[in-house]
Design brief:
The chain has 10 helices and 10 strands. The strands form 2 sheets. The protein has a 6-stranded mixed beta sheet, with helices on both faces. It has a 4-stranded antiparallel beta sheet with strand order 2-1-4-5, covered by helices on one side. The chain is globular.
């Protein structure tokens, strides 16, 4: 079966900075969970920007290659078209609307749905993240970091995406909170059938969560394969895990 999401030979550059990605290819199977790993500056966020159609906004440009979703060549499709096709993103830093309530934040994500489905989808997010239901009338800016991450995930999942792009979920959060959120994310993947591309600095945790992984090194794919094999490989330890604590 054809993968849901495919990047083929992608090269992306920024003005006066050269290529941030060079000839990168990867695939996310339908309903699968794929980890994208690499040190700071490896090109992970650039790949997400290219996938979502936001690379122009950040001063970059696709120099070569293709991005396909469900067999459709996205080329210059704007971000809102990609969302309508079934893509959603949890951005680095969460970026919740801090002055809006929790429920208003979720309703922003639900705007893509027909009105008849919004109430049901809101209830499913509250079932997934009960803490959000407890805080539903509270301004998002008053939530803890972990709660804001739950809200960012809920806002993305409420639209029932076919592909979820998660950028640095663990950033700034305590390890126990991160593991709890990953458990909830795994439940979403299993229950909703949502495919996921997870960009993560915590390599060990991401490799436990994902079934397949790609490792970027200076803008190129250095390793690719089943997550368990990559986690056990000497090449992975040399490239990435050697400097990381338990």
């Amino acid at each position: 079966m054809e993968p849901l999401f495919v990047i083929e030979g992608l090269s992306v550059g920024y003005a006066r900075k050269g290529l941030a990605l060079e000839d990168v290819s990867l695939a996310v199977p339908r309903g699968g969970v794929v980890a994208l790993l690499g040190a700071n500056g490896a090109g992970k966020t650039t790949l997400i920007r290219a996938a979502t159609g936001l690379i122009d906004f950040h001063g970059g440009a696709v120099a070569a290659g293709a991005v396909r979703f469900d067999g459709q060549l996205l080329h210059r499709a704007p971000p809102h078209v990609r969302v309508r096709l079934g893509m959603a993103q949890v951005p680095e830093g969460r970026l919740v609307f801090k002055k809006l309530t929790v429920e208003d934040n979720l309703n922003v994500g639900a705007a893509i749905l027909p009105a008849a489905q919004r109430k049901e989808s809101l209830a499913s997010v509250y079932a997934m993240f009960p803490r959000l239901q407890e805080r539903r009338s509270q301004a998002a800016g008053w939530l803890s970091g972990g709660e804001q991450q739950m809200l960012a995930l809920g806002r993305a999942l409420i639209g029932r995406p076919r592909l979820l792009l998660v950028d640095e979920l663990s950033l700034g959060l305590a390890p126990l909170i991160v593991r709890a959120i990953y458990r909830q994310l795994r439940s979403a993947a299993e229950n909703l059938g949502t495919a996921m591309l997870v960009v993560e600095q915590n390599a060990r945790l991401a490799l436990e969560f994902a079934s397949h992984a790609y490792v970027l090194d200076r803008g190129r794919v250095a390793l690719a394969g089943p997550a368990a094999e990559i986690a056990a490989s000497d090449a992975m330890r040399e490239l990435y895990l050697g400097g990381e604590g338990a």
